[in-house]
Specification:
The N and C termini lie far apart (about 40 Å). By secondary structure, the chain is mainly alpha-helical. The chain has a three-stranded antiparallel β-sheet, with no helix packed on it. Helix content is about 45%, strand content about 10%. The protein is globular and about 30 Å long.
């Protein structure tokens, strides 16, 4: 088995049928370039804030992101965490605003 195949097998598959292409596709930066990513949004039922994922998103989080696209902007590379963590608490920052918009959108849906 080549290294190329090994990498490909680790990446979650994205459904690509014609009807699915019309739906919101959740292909975030992490899935284009598999690496360690962190969810920095509000706590969800199965995903607490600062959950770490390798090689893409799990299906249950992917479904949440489809339903609430603002969550996609709250999934970051691990290397960005020191900066993002600071910005989440800085009133008026982009990350602060995104976090609060997601929290409002989710309401009791978290």
């Amino acid at each position: 088995m080549t290294a190329q195949k090994s990498k490909k097998e680790q990446v979650p598959e994205v459904q690509s049928t014609e009807s699915k292409k019309q739906e919101v596709q959740v292909i975030d930066k992490a899935e284009e370039n598999p690496s360690t990513i962190v969810y920095v949004g509000p706590d969800l039922e199965l995903v607490p804030q600062f959950s770490v994922f390798h090689n893409g998103l799990p299906d249950h989080l992917r479904e949440k992101v489809k339903a609430h696209p603002v969550l996609e902007k709250l999934i970051v590379k691990l290397s960005e965490m020191p900066t993002i963590e600071d910005r989440l608490s800085r009133v008026g920052s982009k990350e602060y605003l995104l976090f609060n918009a997601a929290k409002k959108q989710l309401g009791s849906d978290a």
